[in-house]
Amino acid sequence: MKSRDPQRQQGAGWLFVSPAILVLGVFLVAPIGMALWVSLSDWSGSGSPISRDVNFIGTENYNALLADPGLARQDLMISFRNTFYYVLGVVPLQTILALSLAVLLNNRFLKGRTFFRTAFYFPSVVSSVAISLLFLFLFAGSGAINNVLGWFGVNGPNWFQDSRGLIHIFGDAVGLWSLASPPSWMTEPSVMGLSFWEWFSGPSVALSAIMMQVIWTTAGTFMLLFLAGLQDLPVEVEEAAMVDGANKWQRFMNVTVPHLRPTILLVVTLGFIGTWQVFDQMYVMTQGGPAKTTLTPAYLSYQAAFTNGDWGQGAAIAFILFAIIFILTTTQRWLMRDKDASAQKRADRGVRRRQRRRPTPVIVEETQRKAQSS
Amino acid sequence: MSAPSKDDRAPIRPVVAAVGEGRPSRVKKFWFYGMLIFFALLYIYPFIIQLVTSFKTDPDATGNALSLTPDPFTTGAWETLFSSNYPTWFTNSVIVTLCVTVGRVFFCSLAGYALARLKFTGRIALFTGLLAVMAVPGIVLLIPKFLILNYIGIYNTYPALIVPLMIDAAGIFIMKQFFETIPESVEEAARIDGASTFRTFWSVVLPMAKPALITLTILSFQGSWNELGHFIVATNDPALYTLTRGVAGFTTGGLGSGNQYPVAMAAALLMTIPTALVFIVFQRYFTQGANAGAEKG
Question: Does the keyword Cytoplasm apply (chain A) (predicted)?
Answer without folding.
Answer: no
